[in-house]
């Protein structure tokens, strides 16, 4: 069992656009939100490699609920 620690968890927000046009309005085509932070990213890779792990850290509020729900959906254990 490996425990990872994320002291500053985040929500990574990725937007996709077709192309960047300088001086023009650039509109996004789609967006994705992911739980992020160094320890969380390590837990994600360990999970994909089939290595038993638990993500730990300090979370609260909207971000905490989002991170916990996202990791649960990915099958990553949290404490």
Descriptive account of the structure:
- By secondary structure, the protein is α/β, with parallel strands linked by helices.
- It has two helices and five strands, in the order βββαβαβ.
- The chain has helices spanning 38-48, 61-74; strands at 2-6, 10-16, 30-36, 53-57, 77-78.
- The strands form two sheets. A three-stranded parallel beta sheet has the order 1-4-5, with helices on one face. A two-stranded antiparallel sheet has the order 2-3.
- Strand 4 (53-57), helix 2 (61-74) and strand 5 form a beta-alpha-beta unit.
- It starts with a strand and ends with a strand.
- The mean pLDDT is 96.
Structure characteristics:
single chain, 79 residues, alpha/beta, 3-stranded parallel beta sheet, two-stranded antiparallel sheet, 5 strands, 32% helix
């Amino acid at each position: 069992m490996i425990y990872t620690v994320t002291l500053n968890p985040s929500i990574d927000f990725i937007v996709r656009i077709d192309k960047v046009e300088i001086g023009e309005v650039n509109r996004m085509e789609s967006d994705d939100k992911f739980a992020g932070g160094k320890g969380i990213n390590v837990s994600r890779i360990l999970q994909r490699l089939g290595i038993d792990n638990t993500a730990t850290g300090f979370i609260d509020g909207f971000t905490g609920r989002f991170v916990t729900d996202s990791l649960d959906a990915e099958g990553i254990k949290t404490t």
